């Protein structure tokens, strides 16, 4: 079994890196805080005698070449260490640090894998500063060119490639340089299912599709006091109609689609001026591609009607679009079996969040292991998973990796 | 009659001061752009041989003491030269520049007033950078202490008193130092009524009440992909419900209340995070104090229900609150008579916008003169009033001022 204290201590330490003035954890991809997190990660990889490699999109790999079978495709375990704004400490970091922990445990046990074991930390999984999310793993899997990714402009106007250069993590490996035999990602659920049902391990068999759009509504700025309601083209009001429409559909429709408007801004953004412009994002998710497309179409139709009814112009821009992914059935079974052998309850489940596994599944068999999130809270400082649950998940990962690295 | 070319040329010149990189007119109170506008105004006042005085809140006065009757209460004509963001060129400036024009015309005609005539430009009428709006005239009328006004913190974190010092317009006169005999303000309508009805002059007999609030909704940040709709406390969605509620009431109710949400922000404002906080402004206006209070109460009741239904906390903060004002019936009649004598059509009307006249009406008889706004558009670069309409309004002002300055 893994060294529980060492794992929990590293999670704690990494969670202290990137606190802002208000003590919020903000370690956005490519930032100074990300650099400090990466430096800590590399030092732990070195402590585990791993060979450290960085690719052109800044993904970090800790490679354990333990045997003469160096030319074998490696088993890869990974996740990310970038965070959202005002984040919890587990999202992503738990999976990466558990990967190092698993390797150190196998090393200490004298285990001789029949192929290399690699722990990966992918760049910009959160997609908060640069879109799309899961960028590093997407590039690694060949779904986005390195050039395009590096030229991404962030919400703060920064360019990802320049930021990676600046913080010293613009590596020279070609993304995809190690083609994995299999990929496993351990992650907190970030949703309420496991806790609610009292189950310790999620054997993640699929992951929902993700559709991100930016919507811009153009109305007419006018005076708040003198303009009769009937003469208004109020971009802000039109935006509020879209938010309510999405919620109504998500609540009433038969599909499990969830919809979120997380970002908004008005122009000119003055108390006594009818907004001439509203810009906001829409995040739609559904495990079924067909119903995700139906929701996208319903939104598009609503926007067309709204533009006519409110006398506004509406433009949409695609920020990210990923189809649902079905994970490798064999690995899912290995996860279930490993849980059972450890006396842990498990259930097959869908991932509500996007993960690097979703991208790496394009190039090799992949699956995920979830542990419970208390109250289903994530992307929030109150994100929490108990120590025993974290340790249980890492032990399942240990067994799954040693299994996959033995064939 | 006034010198049409001189007036239109000054409006044009002042409208070029404060253009930003994107050629938008942004001359917010206390800014560098405001300083340049003020400097131009002062130079025109000096050209008209006016004695220039500045009070502690930065209001600028151009005083024409033409006779031995210097101790008489002056007739005051005024408005403001600060602008909103991406403004038109007429709002406020037209009234101030017409005041100088009227004085120069009277001077040239050898008119000898029986009391001083003063043209005033009040500080921060727009209320965009600092609240409340009509701040300079409110302080002048004794409705807000100089100290409180000078310590106002702007949307950009600046302090009005420091900004006035910096731009050299923190004067030494005590606000209210000249107690007017009467106050007249010439302004563009900023609404659609006059143009729609084909009328040249509005004799403004009252002005609606203004209620500004800032509303903060606190929800719970959580993951956009994993959090079931039923478990969300979405501050952004709750804000959209308020915007829709206000619109529905404004459209359906029997009251003429108009409601506008002009400013909004979400926190943490990320595409894949349910907003934990939404902050937005509500601008309610009604010519009837009773129905304005009823709308405020309806909003408060809705917020209480919404907080319970959505599991959010809602706090409201008062930004500005002004009761409706009834202008002086005698001056309104003088405006009507002057219009008729000039062969101009006129109608009595309500002002939808707030104006400095609303504040100065607290300390002396006051009224306003409106000219048509094409399409009712204002607080927008497309704000437009034709040259002949501008000249007609200034000539009515000339007649009204010479009348008031003769008794
Ligand atoms: N796991 C996770 O939070 N990923 C971020 C991408 C997303 O699902 O929004
Ligand atoms: N006239 C004018 O636009 N005043 C600004 C204050 C307001 O009415 O919102």
UniProtKB/TrEMBL annotation, chains A, B:
Membrane-spanning segments: none
Superkingdom of origin: Bacteria
Lipid metabolism found in the keyword field: no
InterPro entries reported for this sequence: Amidase_Cbmase, Bact_exopeptidase_dim_dom, Peptidase_M20, Peptidase_M20_dimer
Alphabetized GO MF terms: hydrolase activity
Keyword Transferase: no
Keywords: Hydrolase
Peptidase M20 dimerisation domain location: 208-307
Entry similarity comment: Belongs to the peptidase M20 family.
Name of the molecule in the record: Zn-dependent hydrolase
Organism: Brevibacillus choshinensis
């Amino acid at each position: 079994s893994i060294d529980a204290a060492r794992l929990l201590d590293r999670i704690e330490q990494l969670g202290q890196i990137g606190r802002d003035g208000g003590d919020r954890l903000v370690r956005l991809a490519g930032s100074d805080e990300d650099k400090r997190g990466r430096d800590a990660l590399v030092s732990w990889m070195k402590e585990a005698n791993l060979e450290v490699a960085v690719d052109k999109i800044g993904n970090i790999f800790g490679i354990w070449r333990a045997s003469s079978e160096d030319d074998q495709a490696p088993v890869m375990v990974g996740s990310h260490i970038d965070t959202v704004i005002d984040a919890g400490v587990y999202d992503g970091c738990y999976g990466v640090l558990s990967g190092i922990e698993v390797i150190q445990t196998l090393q200490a046990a004298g285990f001789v894998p029949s192929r290399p074991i690699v722990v990966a930390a992918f760049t910009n999984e959160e997609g908060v500063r640069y879109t799309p999310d899961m960028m590093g793993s997407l590039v690694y899997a060949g779904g986005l060119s390195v050039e395009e990714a590096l030229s991404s402009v962030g919400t703060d106007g920064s360019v990802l490639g320049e930021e990676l250069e600046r913080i010293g993590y613009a590596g020279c490996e070609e993304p995809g340089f190690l083609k994995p035999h299999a990929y496993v990602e351990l992650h907190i659920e970030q949703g309420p299912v496991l806790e609610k049902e009292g189950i310790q391990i999620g054997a993640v068999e699929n992951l929902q599709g993700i559709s991100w759009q930016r919507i811009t509504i153009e109305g007419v700025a006018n005076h708040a006091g003198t303009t009769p309601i009937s003469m208004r083209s109020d971009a802000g009001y039109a935006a509020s109609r879209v938010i309510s429409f999405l919620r109504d559909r998500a609540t009433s429709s038969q599909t499990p689609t969830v919809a979120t408007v997380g970002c908004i801004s008005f122009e000119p953004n003055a108390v006594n001026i009818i907004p001439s412009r509203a810009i906001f994002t829409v995040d739609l998710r559904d495990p079924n591609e067909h119903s995700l497309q139906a929701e996208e179409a319903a939104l598009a139709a609503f926007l067309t009607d709204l533009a006519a009814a409110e006398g506004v112009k509406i433009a949409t821009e695609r920020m990210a679009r990923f189809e649902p992914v079905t994970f490798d059935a064999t690995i899912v079974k290995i996860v279930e079996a490993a849980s059972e052998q450890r006396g842990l309850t498990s259930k097959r489940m869908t991932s509500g969040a996007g993960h690097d596994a979703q991208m790496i599944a394009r190039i090799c068999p992949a699956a995920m292991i979830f542990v419970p999130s208390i109250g289903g809270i994530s992307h929030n400082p109150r994100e929490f998973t108990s120590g025993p649950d974290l340790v249980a998940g890492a032990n399942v990962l240990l067994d799954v990796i040693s299994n996959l690295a033995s064939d």
